[in-house]
Design brief:
The chain has 319 residues and is an alpha/beta fold. The protein has 11 helices and 12 strands. The protein has a 5-stranded mixed beta sheet. A 5-stranded mixed beta sheet has the order 9-8-10-7-11. Strands 1-2 form a two-stranded antiparallel ribbon. Helix 8 links the parallel strand 8 and strand 9. The C terminus is likely disordered. One of its GO terms (molecular function) is DNA-binding transcription factor activity.
Length: 319
């Protein structure tokens, strides 16, 4: 068994993973508390063992070869799984740990929640690392099951939704409002459904969906809106709306972050919108690990703080 591993120093896989993530021998060496020359020597040994260059210099970065790209996800998952299993043997000491936690997020969940979470972690665990990756699906099922990420922060539109194999921490519920430029020439008297449909719209499709939840809600009224722009990211929408006459229908609490100056305003949606629920998904396979349990508790605390801090604000009437 494991004949391909017998002549391979498995510590070299830590070096591979660090270089792949940082694209730098120096940065990888720093993470692993090695000298750059020792890290470079370890890479040479791994190249010899696997008969592939693995990384080639392009400009100032070390770019992975085809074989390295094929290996990367599996190596990361294997190291994550092994680290989680070993951490279950004893207590997690956050003040001394230098463990790396991987979170899958959308741009808005990163913007709205990560600062609060990292503020909490900074004082409790000053040496841990948080690696953030972009979420390509609402629950990141495959990444969580494989151990490539520890938590996925995302939205769902079903309060009772439970993804098979996954568990979730609930944060808060939100509805949708319509974002517009403060200088929009046709919205001085408010926003009716007819007025809404007469305008052009910016639509956010973060998971490459063919249609948005808002378009599905409109189809229940047998109407459709005129889509001018489709975006994979929510963060670009306010800038586009502020410079055009387009409208964007976004979660209320997202809009509250954006409406700070005089360039934007928002309106209640002139139709019944779905409710979206922010959750942190995780796989029960890793839930027993002491470090996973500790971070799960910190996420739940942050969610409680965020939800409590926004409940009163959600009752403020729109501008």
């Amino acid at each position: 068994m494991h004949s391909s591993l017998r002549n391979l120093d498995l510590n070299l896989l830590l070096v591979f993973d660090a270089i792949y993530r940082h694209r730098s021998v120096v940065a990888a060496a720093d993470e692993l508390a090695m000298s750059p020359s020792a890290c470079s020597h370890a890479l040479t040994r791994l190249r010899q063992a696997l008969a592939d260059e693995l990384f080639v210099r392009y400009g100032s970065a070390m770019q992975p070869t085809v074989q390295a790209e094929r290996m990367a996800d599996d190596v990361s998952a294997a190291l994550s799984l092994l680290g989680t299993r070993l951490s279950q043997r004893g207590h997690f000491e956050p003040a001394r740990s230098d463990e790396t936690f991987i979170l899958a997020v959308t741009d808005f969940t990163a913007f709205s929640l990560l600062p609060l979470l990292l503020r909490r972690l900074e004082g409790l665990a000053p040496h841990i690392r948080v690696r953030v990756v972009y979420s390509t699906q609402q629950d990141a099922l495959e990444e969580l099951a494989a151990g490539r990420v520890h938590f996925s922060l995302g939205f769902t539109h079903d309060a009772q939704a439970r993804v098979e194999e996954l568990e979730a921490i609930d944060c808060y519920a939100d509805d949708y409002v319509v974002l517009a430029s403060a200088s929009h020439p046709r919205l001085n008297d408010g926003l009716s459904l007819a007025g809404y449909l007469a305008e052009r719209h910016v639509v956010v499709l973060p998971w490459k969906d063919s249609t948005s939840i808002i378009d599905q809600a409109l189809s229940a009224h047998a109407v459709r809106r005129d889509v001018a722009v489709e975006l994979p990211s929510m963060m670009a929408a306010p800038a586009i709306v502020s410079h055009t006459d387009y409208l964007a229908t976004l979660p209320r609490r997202a809009v509250r972050h954006f409406v700070r100056g005089e360039s934007l305003r928002y309106f209640e949606a002139p139709f019944v919108t779905p409710v979206c629920y922010l959750k942190a998904f995780f796989h029960p396979r890793y839930a027993a690990g002491a470090s996973h349990r500790w971070l799960r508790e910190r996420i739940a605390e942050t969610f409680a703080e965020t939800g409590a801090g926004l409940q009163d604000e959600s009752r403020i009437p729109p501008i």
